Structure formats: C-alpha cells, structure tokens
C-alpha cells in the first residue's frame, strides 16, 4: 500500500460527510486507503462508514470515554493500524484537491530526502497546514508519533511539524490544494475539559521545553490490556 489517509473523528460526522469524497476520489495511480478513526464518536461514525461501503474506505473504533478526546492518541492509533508506507493525516473538516495525493507521493517517491509534506502558514485564522499532513511511516515511528501528553486543543500539530522539519526536508504543497470548512470554536473544544483553546494551546507549546523523550511509555496504545490491542480494542472492516 502506497499511502493511507488517517482521519480522526469525534463529533464531526457532518463534516466528514462533506469532505470524505475529496479523499476517496483522489486522481492518482498510487494505491491508497482512507482510514477513519472513530474515537467513540457520539455520531456513530464507524457505523456510517460501514454503510458507505466504498472499496478504499476502512474504519476503526477506539473505546475512549464518551466525553474525552485526545487528537494525538487518535491519530497514533490510526497510524498503527494503517497499511500505507506514507501516512496522510487529514482532519474531518478538510477538503483536498483531486491532485493532492498524486503530487505529494510522486515527489516523495522521487526524492527520498523528503520526510513529509505540509505547510506552516497561519494567515486569516487559517489552520496550520490546513488540516492535512503527510509523513513517511518509518519517520512517524522514529519521531514516536504525535505527543499524547498534550491534552486539550492545539499544539500537537505544530510540535509534530517542527520535529518533522528536524528529521529531514519537508515538501510544501500548493496552498490551493487544501482548504477547510469554516466553523466555530465550540465544535473544536467540545470534548476537552478546558474550553479555552488559546489557554490549552499555550500550555501545550510551553511544555515542549520541559519534555524529554516523546511518548516514553509508548504511543497509540493507551487503552490496551494484556490481550491483543487490535483484536480486543478495535473493530474494523
């Protein structure tokens, strides 16, 4: 498998319904899948994906507490379960140009010095990278994934982007290749204890200076027990 889209979802099924086609219908000869990670979503996103029955679409469910969300953990679980050599993390509210995947994979396949793809523009309240990143799975493992100690909204994407940049070259894809649905902050912070996104973002970014090894106790496996994580804590199709 050349690539896997990993889409974290918690209370964002309505957004996913709008954007999922832009990922499923990428115009490329590369082999890819779209993996939706239902983080105990109250909308039953996993059920919707099963009914959608698209050959490139898979979904998994993480039995997190119903009122809790950790975006880093959600993405890391998806990455562990993904089959692609290149991981494409994309938010549920993000649209992609049909040529996005072909452009990114073709460039990364030709230039092995490129470890990932993304953008760090922050204009007009835009989201960092417009909600979509790509990284070689080998690099994601070496970086130990997204930092799961970051609780609340914000900080984890910028942290991961900075660590990617230290690991190698980053492909900056064209700005017009990705855009997001405009929506209010109440949807961003609904499943976090702290309802002030600026506060949590500041706390998470300030914690970087005190951090040692990222995820020293492992990543993507917060809810595993003595039996197989995949067999007992995820359902898939």
Number-wise, the strands total: 9
Largest sheet entry: 7 strands, mixed
Helix tally? 9
Q: What is the overall silhouette? A: globular
As a percent range, the share of strand residues is 15-25%
Instruction: Estimate the helix proportion, in percent.
Output: 25-40%
Q: Oligomeric form of this entry?
A: single chain
Low-confidence regions: 121-129, 223-237
Mean pLDDT: 84
Under the CATH scheme, which class?
Answer: Alpha Beta
CATH topology descriptor: Spore Coat Polysaccharide Biosynthesis Protein SpsA, Chain A
- For CATH, the homologous superfamily is named as Spore Coat Polysaccharide Biosynthesis Protein SpsA, Chain A
Find the structural class using helix and strand composition.
Answer: alpha/beta
